[in-house]
Amino acid sequence: MKTVLITGSTSGIGLGIAREFAKTKKYQIIFNGLETNGPDIAASIGKEFGIDVMYSPANMLKPEELRNMVSEGLAKFGKIDVLINNAGIQHVSPIEDFPDDKWLAIIGINLNSAFYLCKAVWPGMKANKFGRIINIASAHGLVASEFKSAYVASKHGIVGLTKTLGLEGAPFNITCNAICPGYVKTPLVEKQIADQAKAHNLSEEDVISKVMLMKQAVKEFVSVETLGQMALLLADERSNTITGTALPIDGGWNAQ
Ligand code: NAD
């Protein structure tokens, strides 16, 4: 059995990825997220697939809680083979009105937490000569959109961290890759659809087709299952030569 720690896995993409890992029955899962029913979500997936699970409410803005989550995971499962840095938030605003606290929260949750967690799991992965780190970046890790300054900066930052750790991990069979999704219909995006509909006086259908999916060649939301399958591939023992990459799964957005 391998152990995977997935941040922000009690909602959206993280939860979808956790389900794909659970289905293989080859992974014990450390769940994390701020959802109050987090413990129930973790327990029900554990029961459904007959795998061991753990849940931690560690806050991505509190480095000490992140280090404790890793220590608790190591105490329970003995090792952490795969780390998936997925927790993230968004805020959309022109730069001159962008609240300072939102900037700090986005950089803290989307970028700094990945640094603390990579650092915390690294010694164990190095000692085991096996580690797979997967960062859920975004198409916005490769290109920008207006009004998303903090988010785009955080996602470009995590792509930089990914490249660096890909190099540093190579002697120890630790790989580090970023997945860069286009739009995925999760609570994070549902909030944006509602906000944009209000701001532009458009219907939600028009926001989806005229604003969101405008940049994707494939006019469909990316599914969490597709992202989970990519994460499983990157986590595989045979994927040791895939490292330092930023892989777009964005319906062709970045091909343009
Ligand atoms: P979501 O809102 O459904 O889930 C986010 C998760 O992160 C939740 O479990 C939440 O509790 C957790 N989280 C937020 N702040 C936290 C904190 N301070 N401490 C601990 N956990 C915290 O969002 P999602 O769409 O599933 O997003 C997941 C990741 O995918 C994010 O990094 C996001 O930037 C990225 N992403 C999303 C999309 C999309 O279209 N939905 C596209 C590209 C990238």
Task: Give an overview of the whole structure.
49% of the residues lie in helices and 14% in strands. The chain is α/β, with parallel strands linked by helices. It folds into 2 domains: 2-183 and 222-255, Rossmann fold, CATH 3.40.50.720; 185-221, no CATH class. It has helices at residues 12-24, 38-49, 63-77, 100-128, 149-169, 187-200, 204-212, 224-235; strands at residues 2-6, 27-32, 53-56, 82-85, 131-136, 174-181, 246-249. Helix 4 (100-128) links the parallel strand 4 (82-85) and strand 5 (131-136). A 7-stranded parallel β-sheet has the order 3-2-1-4-5-6-7, sandwiched between helices. The longest helix is centred in the middle third of the chain and has 29 residues, at 100-128. The chain has 8 helices and 7 strands. It is globular, with a radius of gyration of 18 Å. The mean pLDDT is 97.
Notable characteristics:
single chain, 256 residues, Rossmann fold, seven-stranded parallel β-sheet, binds nicotinamide-adenine-dinucleotide
Uncertain runs: none
End-to-end separation in angstroms reads 41 Å
Number of strand segments: 7
Q: How much helical structure, as a percent, in the residues?
A: 40-55%
CATH homologous superfamily caption of the largest domain: NAD(P)-binding Rossmann-like Domain
Q: What's the overall average pLDDT, rounded?
A: 97
Task: Name the CATH architecture of the largest domain.
Answer: 3-Layer(aba) Sandwich
Q: How many structural domains are formed by the residues? A: 2
| SSE order, one letter for each helix or strand | EHEHEHEHEHEHHHE
Rg over CA atoms, rounded to whole Å, is 18 Å
Beta-strand residue fraction: 5-15%
Query: Might you state the CATH topology name of the largest domain?
Result: Rossmann fold
Largest sheet: 7 strands, parallel
User: Class of the largest domain, according to the CATH hierarchy?
Assistant: Alpha Beta
Q: Which strand order does the major sheet show?
A: 3-2-1-4-5-6-7
Structural class: alpha/beta
- Number of distinct helices: 8
Shape descriptor reads globular
Q: Ligands bound here?
A: nicotinamide-adenine-dinucleotide
